Inverse folding.
C-alpha cells in the first residue's frame, strides 16, 4: 500500500475519479448515446424504406409503360379494323347506289319510250281522224255532191285501215 | 523542471485534495456532457457540422464493436461503456497536450520545496484515474460474465475440479485465469498511465532542452499516442467483455 501511496494513489481521489467516470457514463448513455443511436436507426430505416419505395415505383412505371404500349397497339389495331370496315361498307353502298341509279335511269328511259309511243299513236289517230274528214269533204267536192256522210266515213276509215 | 509521478495538488476542497489531473478530468467530462447534449438538442435529419463528427464516431465505434461481438444486441449493450472510455480517455489525453503544459500554474509548495504547480496534467497521467477506470472495467467484466451465464457457470472458469479429465492441469489453468484477472487490472492501469505520463515527461524535457521546433514532432507523436491508447484501452475492454460472455469449454 505504501508503494501505491508513493505513486500518488489516494483513495479519496480514486473514488472521486471513479464516480466522475460513472456519472459521465450514465449521463452520456441517457442523453447522448440513446438519442443518437435511435436517430441513426430511424434514419437507416427511412433510407431503406425510401430505396424500397423507389424500386417499387420503378416497377410500377415499367408496368405502366408496358400497359400503355399494349393499349396503344390494341387501339391501332381497332382503328385499322374500323377503317377497313368503313371502306368496305362505303364500297358496298356505292355499288348499290350505282345499281339503283341505273335502274332508275332504265325506268326513266322505258317510261319515256312508252310515252313517246303513246304520243305517236295519239297523233296518228288524230291525223287519221282529220284525214278521213278531209277525204270525205274532198271526195264530196270532187264528185260534186254530198254523199251519204256516215257511209262515206265508214268507207274511208276502212280504206285507211287497209292503208295502214 | 519538476517531474512528479503523483498528480500535484492545486488546492483543497475541505479535506478533499483537488489535483490538476482531477481538475482536467472534471473539465473534460463536463465538456463532453455539455457538448454532446448540445448536438443532440439541435439534432437534424440531415447532419451538419459537429453532428457529422459525432455520428461518424458513434457509427464507426458501433461497427467496430459489432465486428467483435458478432451480435447487434450485445454490441448495443457494450456500446456505452466502450464509447465513454474511448471519448474520455482520448480527450483527457489530448487535454494534457495543450500549450502551457507544466508551465502555467499556481506557485506553491510541492514535496517540500516551492515550485510552479501546473494546471494542466492529463487525467490519464494520474494513477488514481487509471486505477479507478481499470477497477471499473474489470468489475464490469466479471458482472457481465455472471449476467451472461450465471454465477456457477462463470465460477467454473476459475475453479475447476481436479478430479476431471485434464485432472490437476485444469485446476492450475483456472487459478492462472483468476490471477490474470488481477493482472488485467494492473496492466490496464500502468499501460495507460505509463504511456501518457511518459509522453508528458518527454515533452517537458524536450521543451527544456530546445524550446523551439524540436518538440513539434514529439507533440505530433503524443497526439497519435493519445489516440492509440484510447483505442487500446477501449478495444481491450471490449475483447475481455466478449470473452467473459463465452462459456468455458469443460
Amino acid at each position: 500500500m505504501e508503494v501505491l501511496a508513493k505513486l500518488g494513489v489516494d483513495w479519496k481521489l480514486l473514488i472521486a475519479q471513479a464516480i466522475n467516470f460513472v456519472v459521465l457514463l450514465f449521463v452520456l448513455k441517457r442523453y447522448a448515446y440513446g438519442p443518437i443511436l435511435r436517430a441513426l436507426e430511424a434514419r437507416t430505416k427511412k433510407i431503406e424504406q425510401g430505396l424500397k419505395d423507389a424500386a417499387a415505383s420503378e416497377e410500377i412505371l415499367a408496368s405502366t409503360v408496358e400497359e400503355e404500349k399494349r393499349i396503344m397497339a390494341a387501339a391501332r389495331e381497332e382503328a385499322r379494323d374500323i377503317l377497313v370496315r368503313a371502306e368496305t361498307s362505303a364500297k358496298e353502298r356505292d355499288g348499290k347506289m350505282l345499281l339503283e341509279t341505273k335502274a332508275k335511269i332504265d325506268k326513266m328511259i322505258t317510261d319515256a319510250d312508252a310515252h313517246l309511243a303513246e304520243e305517236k299513236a295519239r297523233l296518228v289517230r288524230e291525223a287519221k281522224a282529220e284525214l278521213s274528214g278531209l277525204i270525205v269533204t274532198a271526195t264530196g267536192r270532187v264528185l260534186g255532191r254530198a254523199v251519204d256522210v256516215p257511209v262515206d266515213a265508214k268507207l274511208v276509215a276502212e280504206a285507211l285501215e287497209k292503208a295502214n | 523542471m519538476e517531474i512528479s509521478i503523483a498528480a500535484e495538488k492545486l488546492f483543497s476542497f475541505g479535506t478533499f485534495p483537488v489535483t490538476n489531473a482531477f481538475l482536467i478530468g472534471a473539465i473534460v467530462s463536463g465538456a463532453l456532457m455539455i457538448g454532446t447534449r448540445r448536438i443532440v438538442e439541435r439534432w437534424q435529419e440531415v447532419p451538419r457540422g459537429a453532428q457529422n463528427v459525432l455520428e461518424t464516431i458513434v457509427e464507426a465505434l458501433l461497427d467496430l464493436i459489432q465486428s467483435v461481438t458478432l451480435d447487434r444486441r450485445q454490441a448495443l449493450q457494450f456500446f456505452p461503456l466502450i464509447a465513454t472510455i474511448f471519448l474520455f480517455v482520448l480527450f483527457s489525453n489530448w487535454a494534457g497536450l495543450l500549450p502551457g503544459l507544466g508551465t502555467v500554474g499556481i506557485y506553491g509548495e510541492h514535496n517540500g520545496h516551492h515550485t510552479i504547480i501546473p494546471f494542466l496534467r492529463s487525467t490519464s497521467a494520474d494513477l488514481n484515474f487509471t486505477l479507478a477506470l481499470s477497477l471499473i472495467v474489470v468489475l464490469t467484466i466479471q458482472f457481465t460474465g455472471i449476467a451472461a451465464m450465471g454465477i456457477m457457470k462463470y465460477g467454473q472458469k476459475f475453479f475447476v475440479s481436479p478430479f476431471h479429465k485434464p485432472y490437476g492441469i485444469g485446476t492450475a489453468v483456472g487459478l492462472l485465469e483468476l490471477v490474470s484477472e488481477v493482472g488485467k487490472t494492473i496492466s490496464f492501469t500502468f499501460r495507460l498511465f505509463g504511456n501518457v505520463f511518459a509522453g508528458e515527461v518527454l515533452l517537458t524535457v524536450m521543451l527544456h532542452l530546445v524550446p523551439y521546433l524540436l518538440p513539434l514532432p514529439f507533440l505530433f507523436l503524443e497526439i497519435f499516442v493519445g489516440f492509440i491508447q484510447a483505442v487500446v484501452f477501449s478495444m481491450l475492454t471490449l475483447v475481455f467483455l466478449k470473452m467473459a460472455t463465452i462459456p468455458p469449454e469443460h
